[in-house]
Amino acid sequence: MEITFTKLHGNGNDFILIDEFDQEIIPEEMKGTFAALYCDRRFGIGADGVLYLQPSDKADIRMRLFQPDKSEAAMCGNGIRCLAKYAYDAGYVREPCTVETGAGIAPVRMGYADDEFTATITMPDPAFERSAIPAVGKGDYREEICGFTVYAANIGVPHAVIFVDDIDSVEIEIFAPPIRHHPTFPEGANVNFAEKVAFDKIRIRTFERGVECETASCGTGATASAAVARRLGLVGDTVQVETRGGPLVIRFGETVTMEGPAETVFSGVITF
Question: Given 39, 82, 97, 218, which residue is catalytic?
Answer without folding.
Answer: 218
